[in-house]
Design brief:
By secondary structure, the chain is an alpha+beta fold. A nine-stranded antiparallel sheet has the order 16-17-18-19-27-23-22-21-25. It has a seven-stranded antiparallel sheet with strand order 12-13-14-15-20-26-24, with no helix packed on it. A hairpin with a 2-residue loop joins strand 9 and strand 10. The radius of gyration is 31 Å and the shape is globular.
Length: 853
């Protein structure tokens, strides 16, 4: 006899397919029963309601009582489909097609066996809403090849709470690259508002004047003006110059933040028109890139509980866009073919024959016209995510009904608590004391950005940057971008979080390195997805050395839980890998060529020395072997990297004795040799260091607006040729596309590296020159770039400015740069280099052939 019956609308095996019917097509209802016995039957009873709530009687359905008159109830018998090993039966019945004027369906499910009838106990009834979407599917699949957006972000944020797994970025007045579920997977390319004037024309928001402000400093006028949360107000002006905003016809602002308790992004829009712009029309334009891809998305408009929403999906990830105002015209289509931007540009409106209700499997874009009340020209837009239709739609419906001010208060309070802890129990207030307001703002933003780039489900997993460098010139072929985890970057972020007093995050990083990323041979991959799956397959020895150093430093500070376990699982295998490494040397930190690099040697030597110290404490017999290998690397391998070319003595960028072509790189210098001083392997007055600095300043240094900056590397003859850095825009400003057609630009993090050296050599005043160079490179949102433009200001191929001394379209914010800035601040405050390892310096001083040779 039947004892159980169940149906879960959003569940795969006993759910509703599709979950929401948009075209009045039939819907499959799947049901489970227990146990398996003969003579069972399962029925669905449902009612249709029109938009006024009236019942629509059944005219054609199968009914339990033959020859009965039209019945307000529809009855459909389910068909048995299969059993499983748990003695469950699975049934399926189709309801619909539905009446043309149907607006809502309520249904119930019951089963019969003999004289016994049972229904689903809770809930007794289910419902779904739909209105006939009067527009057909869009033609033109798949649309133009998808592209990402510029790597230069003016803001990046997320709720501090782990209950919200949504991250967002923005640049040039547009929200872009929204990440969902994990920080390595963007699911939105961009979202923006278009303002259509009386002539049917609209401005490109990216070409308008705009400004970025931190929301917490605006809603608390009595504050000190220092940002303490990553919520933003972005304002676009009807002019290309924000300083001339009074001459424009309108301004449009967006308050942007994620909901701390929902997987939702909130965008609070306010339109401020002059009288002549009051009747302009406002459109929301949304380009999803679900599951880190722009080519295979699908989307449709649906009515959910009387809200018209746009739902997009791919690979089990769903996003619903909802707006708390009535909607005018709407459509979805394929990018560059019949999307809203293209149609508005051509027709200056959205004609009826160009409105589409669905676009399947392509590069899709949705547009919705927002009807703003004249007395309250505001709207709340939500982008809500889920793992099925129901979850995304219900979340959007719930979030769009919230008071954004209350959500913002909660968002801001969580970040303020984090910052307050760094001020009161950490070092953030101390290291910014005495510095100007711009430096202090940048420090507070830097601390939050590093924390925000951490994954919510994999603590300690911090990506390099929430961006795809030159993303507006690349598409799905570059799915990794910089939203991957590099061990080298994690080292800089771990030590930076220690510098401000966030030891918990540093501790989480070492456990992530230990439990998720470290490979069975003791090494680490070049980089990986959040779950530890390698992305690029090369090997870089500094990335195996740095985790040893992080663990050692945390241990010395008594901030490492169970150090014995970390020694056994992480330190000893990594040290063993380094000490037994007998192959040709691996890639250097710039990830392009292989050989012996002074930078890599510095990290390996320091790691082996502290590992040997740790081994000595544990009476581990491998101590002497590790120490001897450190000496061998510091003396013999490093000796090969020092060269005399064209009358100049210096540490070459890299030395590869196994390949004559790579020997050309002996004519190339970079600043990586400074890591020898920073970690304590060499002294700041070492002759080879001094000679190398002289060549560095001749070949790869440039003072821009009075601030010192450096290229990654360059030829010592200052000519183009083998060894020239090509990772950057070309001289006309065109984006780097991976074809080695550009020219490397200046990296502010290298100013920070030099600042640490100058602190040791010349003192605080000189170090501050390099600190100020980093501050000067920040953009309006206090995001620090990977590279800055070092030539006169020009426009790139998209019409955007590349400004002398400001970030290019590479990667902004770069966590490495923010981390280097915080560490230099800490070093200046302490009067000593924060990354210096006293044990390494002492050991190398005791070995004259290392420290002074």
């Amino acid at each position: 006899m039947i004892t159980e019956i169940w149906h879960v609308p959003e569940q795969y095996d006993v759910g509703r397919k599709p979950l929401h019917s948009t075209g009045h097509e039939a819907v499959e209802i799947w049901v489970g029963t227990y146990p398996v016995e003969p003579g069972q039957s399962v029925w669905i009873c449902y009612q249709e309601f029109d938009a006024q709530g009236n019942i629509i009687p059944d005219q054609h359905s199968t009914v339990l009582i033959p020859d009965s008159p039209p019945n307000p109830l529809h009855y459909v018998q389910c068909n048995w489909r299969y059993n499983n090993s748990d003695d469950n039966s699975y049934w399926c019945g189709k309801i619909g097609p539905f009446s043309d004027n149907a607006h809502k369906v309520i249904y119930n499910i019951f089963a019969r066996q003999g004289n016994k009838t049972i229904t689903i106990p809770s809930p007794d009834f289910f419902e779904f809403w739909f209105d006939p979407i009067p527009f057909p599917s869009a033609p033109g699949r798949p649309g133009n090849p998808p592209l990402w957006t510029s790597g230069a972000k003016e803001g990046f944020g997320t709720a501090l709470s782990c209950d919200s797994k949504v991250w967002f970025s923005h640049s040039e007045g547009v929200i872009n690259e929204v990440y969902f579920r994990s920080i390595d997977k963007p699911s939105v390319k961009d979202f923006q508002f278009l303002v259509l004037d009386q002539n049917g024309k609209f401005n490109d928001p990216k070409a308008m004047g705009s400004k970025v402000e931190y929301l917490d400093t605006l809603i608390n006028p009595g504050s000190d003006g220092i940002p303490r949360s990553l919520a933003y107000r972005i304002t676009n002006f009807d002019t290309t110059d924000p300083n001339q905003s009074s001459k424009g016809r309108y301004e449009l602002s967006m308050d942007v933040l994620s909901d701390p308790v929902e997987d939702s992004l909130l965008i609070g829009m306010k339109y401020k028109p002059k009288p002549e712009a009051k009747n302009f029309r406002i459109f929301a334009l949304f380009n999803p890139h679900m599951d880190n891809s722009g080519q295979g998305d699908s989307g449709k408009f649906v009515y959910y509980k009387d809200h018209l929403m746009f739902l997009s999906w791919e690979n089990g990830i769903y996003c619903a866009m909802d707006i708390n105002r009535s909607i005018g015209k709407y459509s979805c289509g394929f990018c560059g073919i019949n999307d809203g931007w293209t149609i508005l540009t051509e027709y200056k409106d959205i004609p009826g024959n160009k409105q589409y209700g669905k676009a399947i499997e392509g590069n899709i874009v949705a547009i919705m016209e927002i009807n703003l009340p004249e007395d309250d020209p505001t709207a709340l837009v939500t982008l809500s995510f889920g793992q099925n239709e129901e979850e995304a739609l219900e979340r959007a419906y719930r979030t769009v009904s919230k008071d954004i001010c209350q959500v913002a208060d909660q968002f801001i309070d969580q970040w303020k608590t984090y910052i307050s802890n760094l001020e009161d129990n950490g070092h953030l207030k101390a290291i910014t004391s005495g510095h100007n307001e711009e430096t202090t703002r940048l420090a507070y933003v830097s601390a939050m950005v590093l924390k925000a780039m951490e994954d919510k489900s994999n603590k300690g997993a911090i990506i390099a940057s929430p961006s795809i460098p030159w993303g507006d010139a690349t598409g799905d072929a570059n799915q990794g971008g910089y939203h991957l985890v590099w061990g080298r970057d994690l080292y800089n972020m771990a030590t930076a979080t220690m510098a401000v007093g966030d030891y918990k995050t540093a501790h989480d990083i070492i456990h992530y390195l230990d439990n998720t990323q470290q490979e069975t041979n003791g090494s680490w991959p070049q980089n990986s997805w959040i779950d530890g799956t390698p992305y690029w397959g090369n090997e870089q020895l500094d990335e195996t050395a740095y985790p040893i150093i992080i663990a050692w430093r945390l241990k010395k500070l008594n901030k490492l839980n169970n150090p014995d376990a970390i020694y056994n699982s992480l330190v000893a295998p990594a040290a063993g890998f380094l000490a037994n490494y007998n192959d040709t040397w691996t890639q250097d930190r710039w990830e392009e060529v292989i050989g012996r690099s002074p930078f890599t040697i510095a990290a390996v030597v320091a790691a082996l020395i502290v590992a040997a110290k740790w081994a000595d404490e544990k009476h581990d017999g491998r101590r002497d072997f590790w120490q001897n290998k450190a000496i061998d690397f510091a003396v013999n391998d490093l000796r090969d990297c020092y060269t005399n070319q064209m009358g100049k003595e210096y540490y070459a960028r890299i030395f590869n004795p196994w390949d004559n072509w790579f020997n050309k790189f002996r004519e190339v210098i970079d600043g990586g040799f400074l890591e020898l001083v920073r970690l304590g392997v060499k002294g700041p007055d070492n002759d080879k260091i001094i000679h190398s600095l002289r060549v560095t300043d001749q070949c790869i240094r440039k003072d821009i607006n009075g601030n010192p900056y450096f290229l990654r590397y360059g030829r010592i003859d200052n000519q183009d040729g083998d060894g020239m850095d090509t990772y950057g825009e070309d001289d006309e400003g065109r984006s780097w596309t991976g074809q080695h057609c550009g020219r490397g630009r200046y990296w502010p993090l290298l100013s920070g590296e030099r600042g640490h050296y100058e602190l040791m050599k010349a003192g605080v005043a000189e170090a501050k020159r390099y600190l100020n160079a980093m501050v000067a490179s920040a953009n309006n949102g206090y995001m620090l770039p990977e590279q800055i433009w070092g030539a006169p200001t020009i426009k790139d191929e998209h019409g955007n400015y590349l400004v002398l001394g400001k970030g290019t379209k590479s990667a902004t914010p770069l966590g490495w740069t923010h981390g280097e800035f915080l560490k230099l601040l800490r070093s200046i405050h302490d009067g000593t280099v924060f990354d210096m390892l006293p044990e390494v310096a002492q050991f190398c001083k005791e070995h004259e052939n290392i420290y002074n040779s």
